# Entry
Amino acid sequence: MGRLKLSVLDQSPIHDGKDDRFGLLDTIELAKVCDTLGYHRYWLAEHHNTKGYASSTPEVMINSVATVTKNMRVGSGGVMLNHYSSFKVAETFNMLEALHAGRIDVGIGRAPGTDFITSRALQGNREIDYSQKAYELIGYLNQNLDKNHPYFDVTLTPSNIPAPPVYLLGSSAGSSGLAGALGAGFVLALFIGTNERSPQIINEYKTSFVPSNVLSQPKVIIAVACIVADSKEEAEFIASSHVYWKLQAVTNYERSALKSPQELVKVIENLSAQEKRYYDETMENMITGTAQECKREIEKLATLYDADEVMIVNVTYSFEDRKKSYELLAKEFDL
# Structure
């Protein structure tokens, strides 16, 4: 494994109790910082009807971020393909590639990124077949759909744009084999849930990989939750905002705005035994500590999953805490 690349997955959290739109503006500001720090790529997430997160349209944010940065690749992490026409998604990313040549990634996922009712509002009554949609998306981008496909003659506008690479996102084994069969990259989202993920998931992806027009060999990225601070205790204190947000989503089926670590001190002390157990499991699934401690854990996971790139997810109440975390990590890795 060569030099480890670090990248960013930005969920556009709404910081410091500000209005929602400032979550988008903070994303753009953070992207500019990470571009100068040496991060390899910057991906934008998709969430709908989700308090605490500001971005429902990563493709809009991709254009905004790519316009104000120079070095990083920029992409979606990811577009929730089940909600949309694969042709429309292909057109959108074809346009982005035309505007920002050689810097665009297409990350897609099958998770809804929202609740059931909002999913229905997004999808209407369309039938969903994620595997078929992923196949069509790649076919449109590469202009190599099967000749018997009903839309074989449909072309993207503008034409003659090189296809950007496609990555499938997954938090378990569900998408790894499909990613390999399609010749796409695979991102293992270790920050989702608290269950153990076997390296066999990556082996399955590599074993099933078929070279494509864009990727000649498998490309593995792991995505982890990581907060860096001056001490382990401070990092966990900062992380409490996101951990409690996740706890609320699981135990009460609701997502409220991010709360500050200061206002959560008493709340966490009064959690029930069951809530405290999930809280602790979620905290343990994050990488927290000093830059040196976090670097050690990140490198250990990269070795375990045989990945040469790690995507850092970082959600904090304070924007300054979040920015500092990425700065400390970049310095420790000498990006």
About this structure: The CA atoms of residues 95 and 158 lie 7 Å apart. The two ends are 17 Å apart (CA to CA).
